[in-house]
Design goal:
The chain is α+β, with helices and mostly antiparallel strands. It folds into 2 domains: 2-180, 2-Layer Sandwich (Beta-Lactamase); 281-289 and 306-449, Histidine kinase-like ATPase, C-terminal domain (Heat Shock Protein 90), CATH 3.30.565.10. Helices cover 54% and strands 16% of the residues. It contains 12 helices and 12 strands. The chain has helices spanning 2-21, 28-41, 45-59, 91-97, 113-120, 152-236, 245-275, 288-305, 325-341, 386-391, 399-409, 440-448; strands at residues 65-70, 75-81, 102-104, 125-131, 134-141, 284-286, 309-313, 321-323, 347-354, 358-365, 413-419, 423-431.
Length: 449
């Protein structure tokens, strides 16, 4: 019975006597566990240093302590606890203390320069902190509250802890650098964004002025050009009397030039309207077969001069469709004109058909085609394929862009297929009955233009 009760009794008595006679003792295992917890749960450098230092001086019953963090041969951060006033630690002293792993005041001889440095900072122990053979800082600890010397166990615990502290300290510094970089980056992004916004505002002002100028100039040019085109058409039709064959060719060239100029002006006007929000669709019943034939008639001479066939295929009966006459006429003219221009041999076939729901228009040619790698960009504003640019340097790159916008605004669908060197198919599919309802206010704007 005595044997069984002796061991528990001994443990209780040991605890009581330790509490009374060995107040300075601490549990090394618990100390290291708590230290690791602090190091693994804190990423802000100042918090990490403060909590770690506070833990060490509390557990080891030390009066004061300091962390000195070094970077790029200068003091980066100093964190102190327990001093009446924060110590003014000189970097030259830090460098001298960095030559030894552990410096203990009581082990140094009187007159030793390191002992003088420790005395200046009221230090009993200095631990060097190293990371990958690079000096990272110091842990400076003052006297114990009891006045006792640091024990071998204390020194051993500090030696075990030092590398862990250094690693955590380096992680915190890296995090701090990332945070600083993020702040710098954010500030730079904000500055650049502000500059871009200001530049964009200026560009918008210039763009607005440009659109206003294009709109005004186009209106001023279109009126006399329409008159010129009208009179040339009358001359070609013999309204002013019979003209000779040689005269007919000259007048027709002038008529074709005026027609191209009118189309270009219409393109510019439409781009301007898109930019200012005044590009509206005004659907009305249209005889598409008649419209297509009228546009083809204007290009008959150009096709004949190039030795190309230009033929039209359409069913005898064709329902009227609801669409914006001027804009659809422009698209039809653009597709046929491009096919004639970019075809050197063979010819152009214009086809149309209709079902109870849709109207389909297609222009097939045997021309230069569009390279596969350029087809995706073909309908972009001002874009022109390389082979087209070589053949026709004066093109604007607006025709197909406008055609796409017109068809999409009609709730229709573009048709496009092409093989480089063999030819292309351009066209569109439109609903027979337009789903677009015209706002009366928009109608007023349409009539003004």
């Amino acid at each position: 019975l005595i044997a069984f009760t002796f061991q528990p009794l001994r443990k209780i008595l040991t605890k009581i006597t330790d509490r009374i006679f060995f107040k300075e003792q601490y549990d090394p295992e618990a100390f290291l566990k708590e230290t690791n917890k602090i190091l693994s749960t804190n990423i802000i450098l100042t918090e990490l240093l403060y909590k770690t230092l506070d833990h060490i001086i509390q557990e080891m019953r030390i009066l004061e302590g300091t962390f000195v963090v070094v970077e790029d041969d200068k003091v980066h951060t100093i964190q102190s606890i327990g001093y009446k006033s924060a110590p003014d630690i000189k970097f030259e002293d830090v460098k001298k203390l960095s030559r030894i792993d552990i410096t203990v005041y009581d082990e140094l001889e009187e007159g030793n320069h390191l002992k003088n440095i420790l005395r200046k900072y009221e230090a009993s122990v200095v631990i060097r902190l190293m990371e990958d053979h690079q000096f990272a800082g110091l842990l400076i600890l003052g006297e114990k509250k009891s006045g006792d010397m640091f024990t071998a166990k204390d020194i051993e615990i500090l030696e075990i802890t030092a590398p862990e502290i250094t690693m955590a300290m380096q992680r915190a510094k890296q995090y701090e650098e990332i945070q600083k970089f993020n702040l710098t980056l954010r500030a730079e992004v904000m500055r650049k964004t502000k500059k871009l916004r200001e530049a964009n505002e200026h560009l918008q002002e210039f763009d607005k002025a440009k659109d206003e100028f294009i709109s005004m100039a186009s209106h001023q040019l279109r009126t006399p050009l329409t008159a010129i085109k009208g009179y040339l058409s009358m001359l070609l039709e013999g309204d002013a009397g019979e003209i000779k064959i040689g005269q007919y060719d000259f007048i027709n060239e002038a008529f074709q030039g005026a027609n191209k100029m009118v189309n270009l002006i219409n393109d510019l006007l439409n781009v301007s309207r898109m930019s200012t929000g005044k590009f509206f669709i005004d659907p009305m019943p249209l005889d598409m077969k008649k419209m297509i034939q009228e546009e083809m008639k204007q290009l008959t001479t150009a096709a004949r001069q190039k030795g190309l066939f230009l033929k039209f295929e359409a069913p005898a009966d064709m329902p009227k469709i609801e669409a914006d006459e001027n804009k659809i006429r422009q698209v039809i003219m653009n597709f046929i004109d491009n096919s004639v221009y970019y075809t050197e041999k063979g010819g152009v076939t214009v086809k149309c058909s209709a079902s109870h729901k849709d109207f389909v228009f297609e222009v097939r040619d045997t021309g230069i085609g569009v390279p596969k790698e350029m087809q995706q960009k073909l309908f972009a504003k001002f874009y022109r394929a390389d082979n087209a640019r070589r053949l026709r340097p004066d093109g604007t790159g607006l025709g197909l862009y406008l055609a796409k916008r017109v068809i999409e605004d009609h709730k229709g669908e573009l048709i496009f297929r092409s093989t480089s060197g063999k030819g292309s198919v351009f066209g569109f599919r439109l609903p027979i009955h337009s789903p677009i309802k015209v706002d009366p206010k928009k109608h007023e704007l349409l009539n003004l233009h």
